[in-house]
Amino acid sequence: MKELLGKSVSDIHELLSAKKIKAVEVAKVFLEHAKANDSKTSAFICHTDELALSQAEAIDNKIANGETLLPLAAIPLALKDNLCVQGYPTTCASKFLENFKPEYDATVVKKLFAAGTLCVGKVNMDEFAMGSSNENSAMKPAKNPWDLSCVPGGSSGGSAIACASGYSMISLGSDTGGSIRLPASFCGVVGMKPSYGVVSRFGLIAFASSLDQIGPMARRVEDVALALSQMQGKDPQDSTSIDASKISGYPVLSVDSVQTLKKESPKEILKGRKIGLIADTIGEGADSCVREATLDAVKRLEAEGATVEEVSLEYNKHVLPVYYLISSSEASANLARFDGVKYGARAKDAKDLNSLYSISRQEGFGPEVKRRIMLGTYALSSGYYDAYYKKAQQVRRLLLEEYDKLFFEQKFDALLMPTCPNTAFKLGEKTEDPLKMYLSDICTIPANLAGLPAISVPFGLDKKNLPIGLQLMAPRLCDDKLLRLAFALEKLAQSKSTVSPLLAASV
Ligand code: GLN
Q1: How far is CA 50 from CA 43, 47, 153, in A?
Q2: What is the CA radius of gyration of the chain?
């Protein structure tokens, strides 16, 4: 049964339809594998065996009653611990929320449970999703299944480890500045940030509301596409969510369209496509292996009929300050609700209301979260608002217009670049220098600032056998087009991509 760990969503679907396996068997294999191995990787904050088993039993009963098989029936799912699941701990990897159990499910959780997934657990992350290495988790630092002395990337580190190690087939993460794509690239899995609005954020504990998006990770593009097809859609609980079916030209992803996509060859997908290579991203600051992998991808894309042209963006050099001003400002507003009264653990020895607030916040938040709240509060304060927050929003608009020009005037279908200038680094290597850590997001942040869909696809290994991830970005709401190109890129990388040593040792 261990071979199930390496299967795809459609493999499981076929086995289940042919009655060769039961949903409960799938649940047990994944749960046991996770329990046996996670002491090495620390991906889980909480295992939810009883939930997965009861969901699996419900599927087996439906099959026994002759009901049609749901699209993601019996697919093991790991959820980042900032997504609300009714009655289960949802900690955001923070001491402040250690004992918090939500009273409702996030919309995406509801949708994926209704589609038949089996929830195997809530997984590790940087506290409140602030970080790039998962080392800001107040619970425990998570480790990369390719090399246990390296970080898995963050903030959705646990979600990436779960897919790369075979603890789950699909994971959900959240991405504010790269938190799905960066860990996906460090752990050798696929991770997608959909266009802003395609997936409801209701039930996601907010970091920076104008940038946050929930998205799927998996070991294959096709599984990411299937997950997204079940997650997307307008939600009355999130006024920024979009009914994609009402937007002309947006073909809504369906299970059938994903099956058709799978059959297309890279040539069919890439013929006549114009792809922009963001040249600055493979300049001096990038690892040589990452640069070589990107240039190799360019060659392979061209060989299949795409045209690749170098592009450079004037405002790209400002993305880090713009992102850290906007995201920290929004975080300072969003995190004001954690006061120890309505939300968050209450300090025990406070003498009056004001000290109750301040001691609760002092004890509850970790150092990186405090740093962001202070930066954001300062940037929003009267007298500084225009110089920092407003200015950052103005540069964000200019950046967005630059991307629009590339896509709509110069007619690029997509943009290509590495997901990160380097591969996974050692635990502890960047913890003393927040700025060094922030630089990990230099390639991923623009998609959040501009609301564009972006995906990281594994593309070979570096000299230390650590995965390299390449990123594709597409015009806003062209999530389906992005996935088609990602299918092609994945096929072109096939000979170079493998599975993590941890998973390889188990199947
Ligand atoms: N690493 C970035 C940050 O710390 C992005 C985090 C995210 O996408 N949630 O803000």
Answers
A1: 18, 9, 29
A2: 22
Q: What is the pLDDT of residue 9?
A: 94
DSSP string, 162-173: HHHHTS-SEEEE
Ligand 1 atom at minimum distance from 208 CA: 9
- Give CA separation, 255 vs 66, 112, 258, 319, in Å: 20, 14, 5, 36
Give the model confidence (pLDDT) of 1-40 as tens digits.
Answer: 889 999 999 999 999 999 999 999 999 999 999 999 999 9
Nearest atom within ligand 1 for CA of residue 448: 8
Catalytic-labelled residue, pool 42, 156, 171, 179: 179
pLDDT value at position 262?
80
pLDDT of residue 131: 98
Distance CA(76)–CA(59), nearest Å, equals 13
Total-model pTM = 0.97
Would you give the end-to-end CA distance of the chain in angstroms? Answer: 9
Supply the pLDDT for residue 121: 98
In the chain, what are the domains?
A: 2-263 (3.90.1300.10)
pLDDT score, position 161? 98
Please work out whether the CB of residue 176 comes within 6 Å of at least one atom of ligand 1: yes
Beta bridge partners, 119, equal: 77
Average confidence score pLDDT of the chain: 95
How many other CB atoms are there within 10 angstroms of residue 103's CB atom? Answer: 7
Residues of the chain with pLDDT under 70: 248-252, 495-497
| Residue in 507, 499, 482, 486 with CA at minimum distance from that of residue 251 | 482
Tell which residue, 187, 203, 95, has the closest CA to residue 143. 187
Token duo for residue 408: 């709509």
- The pLDDT assigned to 244 comes to 74
Q: What single string gives the DSSP state of each residue in 314-335?
A: GGGGGHHHHHHHHHHHHHHHHG
Q: For ligand 1, is residue 207 a contact (CB within 6 Å)?
A: yes
Question: Where would I find the beta strands (DSSP E) of 177-283?
Answer: 190-193, 213-218, 274-278
CA distance 133 to 439: 12
Whole-angstrom Cα distance, residue 346 to residue 365?
Answer: 12
